[in-house]
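The methods section describes the discrete structure representation at length, but only in general terms. Each protein is reduced to its one-letter sequence and a matching series of backbone shape codes. I believe one specimen quoted in the main text would settle the matter. An entry of this sort, consisting of the sequence and the corresponding backbone structure tokens, reads as follows.
***
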Amino acid sequence: MFIFVLLFLLSCVYYVYFRRMRKPLYELSESLPNTGCLPIIGHTHWFLGGPEKVLKNIQQLASLVEDSGGISKVWIGPSLYIVSLNPDDVQKILENCLQKDSSYRFLQNWLGNGLFVAPVDLWKAHRRVLLSVFHNKIIDEYVDVFGEQGEVLVERLKEQINKPEFDVYKYITSCMLDIVFETAMGEKMDVQHNPDTPYLRARNAVMSIIGMRLFKAWMQPDVLFNLTPYSKQQKENIDLTHKFTDEVVRKKRMLHEKNGPEKNLGRRDLLQLLLDRETKFTDEELRDQVDSITIAGNDTTALVISYALLLLGCHQEEQEKVYAEVKGIFGDSSRHPTKADLNKMDHLERVIKETMRFYTVVPIIGRQTQKELKLSTCTVPAGVGCAVLPFAMHRSKRIWGPDADSFNPDRFLPEASAKRHPCSYIPFSYGARNCIGRHFGMIVMKSVLANVLRNYKITSSSCGRLKIEILLFPVSGHMITIEKR
């Protein structure tokens, strides 16, 4: 009996201590509008259910936040998040909070301390090196790779001419994997002709498990996750992807030590360029960086291209404008796009930008305050999570006007863009920790889309329902039909 009383008293003392230490959080929470917060569990119930339901709940939550002035709170169990849809506050968060939110830890077993998930101090050191590798002049050297793989894609799509609708994402993601493998690692994988490989199966399995874990509260504690069969499955598949990258890194390291940087003539892949830098990376660090580049560079870009085709299939007048533009550049030539060609594709670039607004493939950005941060209606203590919702911001009628739900590439004419707040449109995030591959992404999207659209006329129906699985996916796929131009 004494033991039970003692345990009860200790629990009471701990609870009082716990509440006292977190008093600033509770005071902050009480100062912000209530958006459906329940006792103890907070907003955890918003994140229960499948990926389609979770996305709908996030949209509903965003609507409540916007109605309450653009800034509010979300409690996920004992963790407090500040949610903002106000561009001024979003700018402060993304400029001042460089630490990724704790939810990104689910990616660390896979991507280690790669640029995407690295702690701030390590990220700063590595970012400086990687910026030189992702210099525009270096990325422009890969334009031939984009054109070659785009040509393979056009050839592969021939099997779908005048056939029933099909999911074009399967073709686009294979094309992008070939591009990313060749530019990041110098490996010609030929995924477009061999899409079902052990590496790709393992990669997709890991993405699926991490996506599931992010939005299932009971799967988030490691202690509970490790009791499930998913833990073993995730480890086996991560080990398989690491083995592949480790072999490439070892091979490149041996060649580099044998030949030296001065003998690496011609176009070099990003891994070679990292080996040439004065800052020396270990093999594990190189693997982390290359894996991060491969994962981040493929899925996001492939999704935007697929959504662009879907939207152009629904908006034939916009498709014809793009076709006229690329036809004017290439005529009847079947040559690959050059850098000069890509620079002329102004309307296509606006289509891509409007696609990224309409279907923001990274719907949520999570950061954590490292010091006190003053926002428009509150002051956030250190150690608090901040959630930015680009998907909701990009559809906000308050920011984009009453026609925010319509597809209009002319929103991105220079004179229109100049009038907007810099954080009203953040498909590549914003601030020092924005997407390092944004130039790579834009030119590869223009190159691949130009190749497809000058060869095929696209038809599609509405995208319909969406879901969140880390990234934004359509429930029924990117379904289109094609016919030869």
